[in-house]
Amino acid sequence: MKGIVIKSTGSWYKVKTEDGRIIQSRMVGKIKLDDLKLTNPIAVGDEVTLEIEDSEEIRGIIKAISPRKNYVVRQSPRKKHQLHFLASNVDQVLLIVTMRNPNLKIGFIDRFLMMTEPYSIPVIIVFNKFDIYTHSDRHNFDILKEIYTDIGYEVMAVSSVKKMGLEAIRTVLHNKITLVAGQSGVGKSTLINAIQPRLGLRTDEISDFTGKGQHTTTFAEMFELTNGGQIIDTPGIKTLSFTHLEVMDVAHNFKEIFEVSSECKFNNCTHRNEPHCAVKAAVEEGSISIFRYQNYQALVAEVEDQNYWERHTDV
């Protein structure tokens, strides 16, 4: 029978079948996919074929995974040479951030976009907790909104507490499969609960001791929305690293940089010290954001600093 994985706990998966049943399932043997080194070979959102292993306990065995239209992976936080699936077969991503409590990490948005750009997955950047922003925070929000809107991303300001912008969020979620992600502590679960209270997700975003975000979602899980559509809630992200990328991967996935790069003199231009670089010229004239360009430079330097042996463990 066919079904969709709606929860992944590492070794067991909840699969919702075409007839609406929820079957606890496991994978037997190895399923090799896309030559990726993965900590979790099956993702929430995967369409799978399974057979019943135990009719009394209603347990299933996953026999095959259908081809994915897209997927979002990150470097595993525990095994730096492996990747970890966040979700697959999504229509869009709702990236939840906040300027305050906890403060937005410089470059976090661009780091996250490195995971969605390879498949051109639409990302809506949602600035939560807008009710506690200072005048300076709101000024910085306006700057960031202009930067990301100019390169094609939708940017929204919301407040779960003041119920500001919630209807707009419901509208963009309607009849879509949406991955919801963000830094730990940004109020992701609180926002989801405000949009659809009956889900009752656990919330405990900020540690009183450290002032930093804590994980309140342990495993990725898909939920049905009453107004149509599904959301995939994911654990809060503390760090994002990219030992699996090469320098040109970064260059190709900053989309405004990639668009201009065809005008560079050299095909392998990294847009740093090379002469006749169209990207550097665009930054100087202001058509490419200096903020985005600096984040690009930081990512390229980070990837470059990882030596060959760190990035190629199979050698």
List keywords for this structure.
OB fold (Dihydrolipoamide Acetyltransferase, E2P); 5-stranded mixed barrel; alpha/beta; 6-stranded mixed β-sheet; 315 residues; Ribonucleotide Reductase Protein R1, domain 1; Rossmann fold; single chain
Report on the architecture of this protein.
With 315 residues, the chain is an alpha/beta fold. The protein has 3 domains: 2-65, Beta Barrel (OB fold (Dihydrolipoamide Acetyltransferase, E2P)), CATH 2.40.50.140; 75-233, P-loop containing nucleotide triphosphate hydrolases (Rossmann fold, 3-Layer(aba) Sandwich); 247-311, Ribonucleotide Reductase Protein R1, domain 1 (Orthogonal Bundle), CATH 1.10.40. The chain is 26% helix and 23% strand. It has a 6-stranded mixed β-sheet, covered by helices on one side. The two termini are 41 Å apart. Residues 205-217 have low confidence and may be disordered.
Per-chain topology:
Layout: E1 2-8, E2 12-17, E3 22-27, E4 47-54, E5 59-65, E6 71-75, E7 83-88, E8 92-97, H1 108-116, E9 123-127, H2 135-150, E10 154-157, H3 166-173, E11 177-182, H4 188-195, E12 221-224, E13 230-233, H5 247-253, H6 255-261, H7 278-285, H8 290-305, H9 308-311
Parallel strand pairs: 3-5, 8-9, 8-11, 9-10, 11-13
Antiparallel strand pairs: 1-2, 1-4, 2-3, 4-5, 6-7, 12-13
Helix pairs in contact: 5-8
